[in-house]
Specification:
507 residues; TIM Barrel; 2 domains; 20 strands; disordered C terminus; signal; Glyco_hydro_17_plant
Length: 507
């Protein structure tokens, strides 16, 4: 199966010397872990320009040499106590893991530990010392200007996080957070933060709408409003990031940028993890990429994009915990994509994709009535040529709603140049790399070329739409049967029945 993941990366300028980017984390809890050269080959094929390692593996750093890929390396949690208590130990670590590899390997930052305050609290008292000693070693090697030092935090260290304006860091950690923020400010570094709207959504027990967690558009009356600032929030990600900004300002730090070191959504879960799905993972990560690269910023800092690392490159089958913990990856270890990101139209490039063969198909478990309504819409207001679905035509068989809807959905998706939101149909459609063509029924998009291309403005009904307009059934004896989703079927005399026997209406 061809690797057709529509991955990025295009940098967006936020300042003269800064760029917003999307990166990716590389975990190693995998039974059949690809070799460093295989990993780097995948990174290059997908044009991934920023990665984060959870250690400083020498083989990986050697494989990344001369690729220009920006690399964040990490001091594992188990080494923090030693480094935080010894300047010499920190200097030796930098010598072995940094100096030995630059400039061939483009190391851009060092993450000292991961979520130390919430997972290894006994190392908290020496955390800032560890950062300081690492930075001092970089200064001695004249590398402090190109390599920043910070430490990733769980967003759970932020208390009372909504509304964001009243958020503050857990005061238990003030003796660590204050000197830490002073260090970040004085060295021009950033606050590293792990942001997981998936967990915020799950733990909210229904208080957070799924669309709000997935970056899906919300009507104005559904947006969350901070009563203190009157800022409107359309997604969980922005709210968490702004909560961190406000928490820093509560401690009188207002000029430290935020770097999101982990964010993502699981593509599979157990029966009790019903929202860990391919579609939700695809939606979240696709929207995250567009949100960052479009330089959207947050309500508190509009236009100032927050660079983010997606969690993660591969599914990690050896991770402990529920099924979802093993399924955060964009790829399987063999290099095949878990799903194809919806990035067309987001100002991105297609990486290692000369055919762009993606198709829009009906979900097998979708409600038949919803599929029929979506099929009617596609062959009606969607203006898809559905004549090939008529009896005796190439795509009539198999004669069922799923098959016919798949053809219509895909034809619309291809006709709209695979634009964002054109393969949704109120949640009953999904993108795939598998060509659904069969027999003499050739689907648009085969070979990477669309049969038609249009700049039409009509969008397929999305799962958050309150109205999809009117959808038309085929005409009979000059009578057009128009379906209104609320009023039922209306019969309207049509002066000119559609030649294809599918009537188009624009109410």
């Amino acid at each position: 199966m061809a690797v057709l993941l529509l991955l990025f990366l295009i940098a967006v300028a936020v300042a003269a010397d800064e760029e917003a980017f999307i990166g990716i984390n590389i975990g190693t809890a995998i039974t059949d872990m690809p070799s460093p050269t295989q990993i780097v080959a995948l990174l290059k094929a997908q044009n991934i320009q920023h990665v984060r390692l959870y250690d400083a593996d020498h083989a990986m750093l050697l494989a990344l040499a001369r690729t220009r890929i920006g690399v964040t390396i990490s001091v594992p949690n188990e080494q923090i106590l030693a480094i935080g208590q010894s300047n010499a130990t920190a200097a030796n670590w930098v010598s072995r893991n940094v100096v030995a590899h630059v400039p061939a390997t483009n190391i851009t930052s060092i993450a000292v530990g991961s979520e130390v305050l919430t997972t290894l609290p006994n190392a908290g008292p020496v955390l800032v010392s560890a950062l300081t000693f690492i930075h001092s070693a970089l200064v001695a090697a004249n590398l402090d200007q190109q390599i920043k030092v910070s430490t990733p935090h769980s967003s759970s260290i932020i208390l009372d996080s909504f509304p964001p304006s009243q958020a503050f860091f857990n005061r238990t950690w003030d003796p660590v957070m204050v000197p830490l923020l002073e260090f970040l400010q004085s060295t021009g570094s950033f606050l590293m933060l792990n942001v997981y709207p998936y967990y915020d959504y799950i733990l909210a027990n229904g208080a957070i709408p799924l669309d709000y967690a997935l970056f899906r558009p919300l009507p104005p009356n559904k947006e969350a409003v901070d009563g203190n600032t009157l800022l409107h929030y359309t997604n969980v990600f922005d709210a968490v990031v702004d909560a961190a900004y406000f928490a820093m300002s509560y401690l009188n730090f207002t000029n430290i940028p935020i770097l999101v070191t982990e964010s993502g959504w699981p593509s599979k879960g157990s029966s009790s993890e019903s929202d860990a799905t391919l579609d939700n993972a695809n939606t979240y990560n696709s929207n995250l990429v567009k949100h960052v690269l479009n330089n959207t910023g947050t309500p508190k800092h509009p236009g100032v994009a927050v660079s983010s690392y997606i969690y993660e490159l591969y599914n990690e089958d050896l991770r402990q915990g529920p099924v979802s913990e093993k399924n955060w990856g964009l790829f399987y270890p063999n290099g095949e994509p878990v799903y194809v990101l919806h990035l067309t139209g987001a100002g991105t490039v297609l990486a290692n994709d000369t055919t762009n063969q993606t198709f829009c198909v009906a979900k097998n478990n979708a409600d038949i009535k919803m599929l029929q309504a979506a099929l009617d819409w596609a062959c009606g207001p969607g203006k898809v040529d559905c004549s090939v679905l008529l009896q005796g035509q190439p795509c009539y068989e198999p004669n069922n709603v799923v098959s016919h809807a798949t053809y219509a959905f895909n034809a619309y998706y291809q006709k709209m140049d695979k634009s964002s939101g054109t393969c949704d149909f109120k949640g009953v459609a999904i993108i795939t790399t598998t060509d659904p063509s069969h027999g003499s029924c050739v689907f648009p998009g085969r070979g990477g070329k669309n049969r038609t291309s249009t700049n039409g403005t009509s969008l397929a009904p999305s799962s958050n739409s309150t109205s999809s307009g009117y959808s038309s059934k085929y005409s009979q004896n000059g009578i057009g049967v128009i379906r209104d989703p609320w009023k039922g079927d209306l019969q309207l005399q049509m002066e000119d029945c559609c030649k294809s026997q599918f009537c188009f209406s624009s109410y």
